[in-house]
Design brief:
Blueprint (H helix, E strand, L loop, with lengths): L1 H51 L8 H12 L8 H18 L12 H8 L9 H9 L2 H10 L3 H14 L3 H9 L2 H4 L7 H4 L3 H9 L4 E4 L12 H10 L1 H8 L3 E12 L2 E11 L4 E7 L7 H16 L9 E6 L4 H8 L6 E8 L5 H22 L2
């Protein structure tokens, strides 16, 4: 009987190992397929750019070519006239970064050279980390990033986060709308003074934003609510909140109970951050920042470090979330504490004025029309 049980355990372990190998193989295959698609789209975009921008092809060439392709390859997806123009944008927006020493191609080439022109994605200029991230991100993600980002640095910020955190297109749109790039790393804090390891302190600075858009919390400004209502609404959508605060956060619990000499205290929300290897306590305040709020947070951090933190973990970080703050007051107040703390604001979706909230899809539509008009040139 013992041998049978051992055999069953061995078979289960074998099945798990094979399953893991299958999933890894599928993931690698999907990565390769995506890289190959980007390779093709970049090359097609280059080919279209060389011939349409030079005037060799007349007006309506892209539409005609798309129709011809659909006829010769029934069921072909991704080569509509609008998407082929997106391929041209993809090439033109990235060519200076991917091929910094190469001029825009011309249409003066024979058919063999044109085929080489189409099959080309020179990612070697990017470096290994960026090259891997670039090829992992889907074309729809790339398209959204190119539409919304004004600088190359901003593009790379979102590409790297998409690749690292496996954002869906919907996730990406939310982060673009929240303008993550502008606010991450800007939170007033005392990390440089309270975290001895400079590298860890730098990671901590980059891990938090100065404002969080919590647009999934459906509480109106006119409602009678307090911090606990906001907290409960966040916990009910904890996955969305984790996507908002960033990668590496693991939720431990809300109203986390601390017992100090038989007296109870409760932390609003407690997380663990894998990148920082420490607990992170979030305290919610409904109103404007008050320096006294940091005293309560500092006490919670001391209790967490003494009673909850494990020996191999870094000291607990505290983040105070309030609805309004005077940055100068915060920066002055936070420097007086020896516990790593920062202060950020949060904004509920219902705080966006109704007329502007209604106009968001309209504005997106106008941007799309402007992009399409630009494509026709």
């Amino acid at each position: 009987m013992g041998n049978v049980n051992q055999d069953l355990l061995a078979y289960r372990e074998a099945a798990r190992n094979i399953k893991r190998a299958i999933m890894q193989s599928r993931y690698r295959a999907a990565e390769c397929a995506n890289a190959e698609m980007l390779n093709l789209y970049y090359g097609v975009g280059k080919y279209l750019s060389a011939n349409t921008r030079s005037g060799k092809w007349g007006t309506g060439a892209t539409e005609t070519i798309s129709t011809q392709l659909q006829g010769e390859l029934p069921g072909l997806h991704g080569f509509s006239p609008s998407n082929m123009k997106n391929m041209r944008i993809f090439f033109e927006q990235w060519s200076s970064e991917l091929e910094p020493n190469r001029q825009l191609p011309t249409a003066d080439s024979d058919s063999d050279d044109e085929l080489v022109l189409i099959r080309q994605l020179p990612t070697a200029e990017l470096g290994e980390t960026r090259m891997m991230a670039f090829c992992r991100v889907g074309f729809t993600h790339h398209r959204e990033i190119l539409r919304k980002c004004k600088t190359v640095d901003e593009r790379w910020y979102y590409i790297l986060r998409c690749a690292d955190e496996f954002w869906s297109v919907a996730d990406l749109k939310n982060h673009l709308r929240a303008d993550d790039y502008a606010s991450f790393g800007n939170m007033p804090n005392n990390f440089a003074l309270t975290i001895p390891n400079e590298r860890t302190a730098a990671v901590a600075v980059r891990s938090f934003r100065d404002e969080y858009l919590i647009d999934f919390v459906n509480i109106k400004e006119s409602d009678a609510y307090d911090e606990r209502d906001v907290e409960n609404a966040i916990v009910a959508e904890i996955k969305k909140f984790i996507m908002t605060v960033g990668a590496g956060f693991c939720f431990i619990g809300n109203q986390y109970r601390l017992l100090v000499d038989e007296e109870e205290f409760f932390v609003d929300m407690l997380f663990f951050n894998r990148d920082l290897q420490c607990l992170v306590a979030f305290e919610l305040k409904k109103d404007k920042f008050r320096p006294a709020d940091l005293g309560q947070l500092s006490f919670y951090l001391s209790a967490l470090d003494k009673y909850v933190r494990k020996q191999n973990e870094n000291k607990t970080i505290g983040i105070l979330l309030c609805q309004e703050m005077n940055r100068t007051v915060v920066e002055l107040a936070v420097q007086d504490y020896d516990k790593p703390m920062g202060v950020a604001t949060y904004r509920l979706g219902t705080e966006i004025p109704e007329p502007y909230a209604t106009l968001i899809p309209v504005i997106d539509g106008v941007q799309q029309i402007l992009m399409e008009n630009e494509d026709k040139k």
